[in-house]
User: Which sequence fits this backbone?
């Protein structure tokens, strides 16, 4: 009887493992773009970590109080977390040999919507100073983004890829635009943020 139960449990486990969600295997230009997209995330994360102390100093030197400096530094962390959770989908690929055009949708944190939500919570708290509201709202923004509960938006973008030395690349302007979209800045432009 024990042997039969073990066999049934084994078969059930194998069945459940087989029914799990299978990740689509990326190929061709989609795979090459995925390398670029994830490379942007990795580069931003490593640059942030490498310059963390310097960024903290800049925040401390540019504000009047320790708490404002903390809030300013938290804003850097919020943007980094937003970049980490950004995703994309490829809508169309036009392969032209050593050149390619991809139409993509970038899904990123909707900071306008998120800020509106957070600020509504603090408008009711009349007894807090402006500094306290800023600090508390930054913490809430960070926690909401980090937990994956932030509202998201999708923006379309056309990406030109070029093959250089057997490697697919995008130009710096396209890379910057993509990175800003991944960070959730409006229209992929940090000036509009």
Assistant:
């Amino acid at each position: 009887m024990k042997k039969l139960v073990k066999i049934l449990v084994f078969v059930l486990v194998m069945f459940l493992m087989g029914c799990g969600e299978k990740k689509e295997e990326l190929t061709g230009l989609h795979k090459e773009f995925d390398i670029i997209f994830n490379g942007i995330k990795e580069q931003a994360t490593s640059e942030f970590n490498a310059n963390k102390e310097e960024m903290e100093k800049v925040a401390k030197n540019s504000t009047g109080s320790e708490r404002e400096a903390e809030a300013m530094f938290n804003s850097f962390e919020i943007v980094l977390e937003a970049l980490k959770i950004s995703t994309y989908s490829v809508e169309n690929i036009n392969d032209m040999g050593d050149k390619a055009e991809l139409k993509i949708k970038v899904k990123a944190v909707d900071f306008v919507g998120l800020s509106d939500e957070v600020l509504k919570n603090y408008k009711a708290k009349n007894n807090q100073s402006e500094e306290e509201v800023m600090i508390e709202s930054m913490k809430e923004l960070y926690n909401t983004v980090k937990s994956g509960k932030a509202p998201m938006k999708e923006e379309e973008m056309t990406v030109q890829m070029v093959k250089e030395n057997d490697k697919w690349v995008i130009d710096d302007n396209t890379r910057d635009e993509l990175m800003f979209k991944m960070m959730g800045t409006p229209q992929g432009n940090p000036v509009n943020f």
Summary: DSSP finds seven helices and four strands in the chain.
